[in-house]
Each structure stands twice: as C-alpha cells, then as structure tokens.
Design brief:
The chain is mainly α and about 375 residues long. It is about 80% helix and about 0% strand. It has one domain: Up-down Bundle (Growth Hormone, Chain: A), CATH 1.20.1250.20. It is found in: Cell membrane.
Length: about 375
Amino acid sequence: MASLTRQQKEAVGLLQIGTFLEYFDLMLYVHMAVLLNELFFPKTDSYTESLIASATLCSTYVFRPFGALLFGYIGDTIGRKKAIIITTSMMSLSCLVIANLPTYAQIGITATLVVTICRTAQGLSSMGEVIGAEVYVSEITKPSAGYSAVAFISVSCAAGAMAAVGIAALVTSYGFNWRMAFWIGACIAVIASVARTRLRETPEFVDMKRKEKRLMEERAARNPEQSTKQLNRAAKTEQPKAPITTLVNCFFINCGWPLSFYVIYIYFNPILKKTFGYSPEDIIFHNFILTIIQVLTFVMWSVLTRHVYPLKLLKIKGFVSLALMAAIPLFLVVCKSGMQLILFQALILTFTLHNFPAEYIFLKRLPVYTRFTSAGLIYA
C-alpha cells in the first residue's frame, strides 16, 4: 500500500484494527461455545443441548439480513463513517455485557435470554462492520492500490478469528479466565470506536449527497407545490440502480465461503473425533492451526492483487475450489491421518471461492447511492 497517502493509510489502519476486534469478539463465543453454553443455558438431555447450541450459533447469523438493511440505510443515508462507528460500539457493549453476565445457575433463564440477545446484536454489528469498512476503503482509494487495501480488510477478519481460536485454546487447555478475554476485546473496541471519530466522510458519499441536494432543489423549483418528502422520493427514483447481473454474480460467488467454512470447521470435526480420536481440546488446536493458515493465505492473495488483476485470481480460485469440493468423497476414502486431513483443509481454505480478493471491483460496480445496502444484503 505504498501508493496510498498518509491520511489514507491512517484510515485503512483504523478500519483494519476495528474489523480485527469485531471478528475477534464475534468468533470468541463461537469457539468457546462448548464451555459458555454450559454456563448460560439450562442443563438438559444431549439432544436439547445440541438444539440450544445450534440456536445460539444461528442467532448470530439469521438476523444478518436485518443488519444489512439497518446499517445499509444508515450507511447510504447518513454516512459511512457513522455506520462503522455504531457497529464497533454495539460490539463493545455486547462484549461488556457478556463479560459481566451472571451464569444460569445464578439468575436462571434471564442469563439465557441476555446472552442470546447479545449474540444477535454481535451478528448485526458484524454485518455492518465488514461491509462498512470495505465500502469506506473502496471510496477513498483508487485502483490498483485499492485492490489490496480492501482485500486486507478480509485479512483483518481472518486474523480476528485466529485470535479468538487462540484464546479459546488457552481457556480450554490452560484455564485462562474467559471473562478476561471478553473484557479485553470490549475495552479495545471502545478505543477503536473513539479513534474512528477522526475519520472523514468519503468523497464519493459527500459528492452523492451534494448531487442529491441539487437535484431536489431543481425539482422544487419546477414543482413548488410538492412536499420535501415527495421531492426526496422523486429524487431517489432518478438515482442509478444496481445491475441485476452484478448482484446475482456477487451473490453466487459469495455463497462459496459459507459452504467452505462449514466443510472446513464443522463437517470434518466428527471425523477428527471418531476416526482419529481427537479430544475437544485437540480439535480446537487443530482449528487454530487452520486459522493461521487462513491468515497467511489471505495475506498472499492480498499481496498478489498488486501484480495480478483480482478477477484473474478469482477465476483460478474458482476452478481449483470446485475441483477440491468434488474430490472430498474420494479423499475421505484415502485419508489415513489428521495431518493429511489438515493439509486437505488448508487447500480448501487457500482456494475458497468468494469475492475475495476482488471486493474492490465488485463494490465499484454498485451505485454509490445503494452500495452499502446492496453489498450488505449480498453478504448477509
């Protein structure tokens, strides 16, 4: 990112730190669910416990479309800067609540309700965070520096998840206080929220609002009898719309990541446990190694965007990813050790098909007026 100005580097740095913390806080509970669900949920039979664990995980993601609409409206109407400050504040508040929340044994079902609400709030805020950061960086940079600048936002997400798994390993293996982990994440997130107030609104958003105001003034001059609400609605109808083909392509390309995430971090876990005799602690450490690999591969792809057009990299990832997914049944037949499995998982991680590292290009093909909302809904 040598071609970025000092102000751009500062903005990118603040956003990367905030995104790192956002995903650290988000994934911290996911990777410690085996411990925390016992503390915040009633003890019952194994089937019900499995349903509770699934519901806790799903509550983080099922409301993401609502988060996309909420923060999309804020980001596209009020400003990118305000949206990303609100998301970081929501995440820090949720972490503070979880860090100080009494257990089910102390306050009963209230603990269950509060932790579920906090997880839902974290899912909503993470939705606005990653998209807000990518949109902001895309609007303050130019090609080709913007390719890697936006791609490194995904690196920050991966690094946050890696740190969360590392803390989970410390908690489960060495008795590290889990509440301290949430305290650390919350406190640093508060600092990040305050630091982000130094950001300026993006030039593209400011220019879009200026044009919108001028358009409303022109319509008011031609139709003085119309109310401000009617003028605003009319002005919106004249804004450019996102191309349907772009939206559909973005959606299907993004579907590759949740599929790969499930295969890598969930589907193979029973195989590690039943076939290779891994304990829960062994599985967490195994996943920690995978998150390190994920960060390294994300850095590799981000750096490559400086030398290779991102859409070319995306095509390579797509072809290899499809081949690897098709090879899973055959691999399970020949796999003889956990080491072979982790190497195969590492390959899937490296070539996972999603819009990374071409986020900049996809975002730029969306109209400024609806960019935050459109990108958010696709991601959700």
